[in-house]
Amino acid sequence: MNWQTRKDYLKQFPVEIPTKAFDRYGDILLDWNERMNLTRITDEDDMMDKHFIDSLTPTLASAYEGTGKILDLGTGAGFPGMVLAMVSPERDVHLMDSLNKRITFLDHVVKELGLTNVSTFHGRAEEAGRDRKFREQYGLVVSRAVARLPILAEYCLPFVRLGGHLIAMKGAEAVEEVEEAKRAIEILGGQLEEIVDLRLPGGDERHLVVIKKVKGTPEKYPRGGGKPRKDPL
Ligand SMILES: C[S@@+](CC[C@H](N)C(=O)[O-])C[C@H]1O[C@@H](n2cnc3c(N)ncnc32)[C@H](O)[C@@H]1O
């Protein structure tokens, strides 16, 4: 990918950008994508902007600061979690997805890139969020393109430890989604901290919805049996 064309935009990120490793990751993604449905974004400029650069945006929120463990819920082909692990090698990054074939792909990327700070988990938010191994264990949870905010809050907030944050990566409907999710956020122990407004190099609108965990999540959440999606809070 021609990272030189994004040089000025990349300057704003408070991290070193490993462009060669990003290229290698992009090549593996395109190769596996021929046999496995991993992404619809395959054009070089779109890959740079909508996968890699978009995945870097959580580093712009003050909630990203610190050294705690990060969970990417519904990571798919590793966005944003794998990219964040690559730019923050000092932080443990956990990638979770309910589709096992995506985990097989992620494990391959981890091995090929020699990443030592990434762990992958095959699991559903509704079950893993009730498991002591994961519940309230993360200083930061990030998630992109998994569900609208009322559902996403029920998927993600149970994983966040008290005082930690959820960064929900959202598009143009962010403010509307925050409005819809007000009740859910409060029930689940969250509090809206800030919305960071951004544009990708191509001009696409992005918003980081930053929610702080201010109270423990009541034991009954997340609900099982597909309830968060069927009957959002
Ligand atoms: C549209 S993809 C987005 C993938 C990636 N975050 C991205 O932005 O490129 C949504 C992903 O969320 C996963 N997912 C959906 N519901 C989930 C759940 N309840 N628990 C865990 N993963 C889930 C899907 O398997 C899929 O990989």
Automatic annotation (TrEMBL):
Protein name listed in UniProt: Ribosomal RNA small subunit methyltransferase G
Main function: Specifically methylates the N7 position of a guanine in 16S rRNA.
UniProt cross-references to SUPFAM superfamilies, sorted A to Z: S-adenosyl-L-methionine-dependent methyltransferases (SSF53335)
Family to which the UniProt record says this protein belongs: Belongs to the methyltransferase superfamily. RNA methyltransferase RsmG family.
Record keywords, A-Z: Cytoplasm, Methyltransferase, rRNA processing, S-adenosyl-L-methionine, Transferase
Subcellular location(s) of the protein: Cytoplasm
UniProt cross-references to Gene3D superfamilies, sorted A to Z: Vaccinia Virus protein VP39
UniProt-recorded Gene Ontology molecular function terms: methyltransferase activity
Gene Ontology BP term (one): methylation
Species this protein is from: Aedoeadaptatus acetigenes
InterPro entries registered for this protein in UniProt: rRNA_ssu_MeTfrase_G, SAM-dependent_MTases_sf
NCBIfam families: rsmG_gidB
Binding locations of S-adenosyl-L-methionine: G74, F79, A125, E126, R144
EC number of the protein: 2.1.1.-
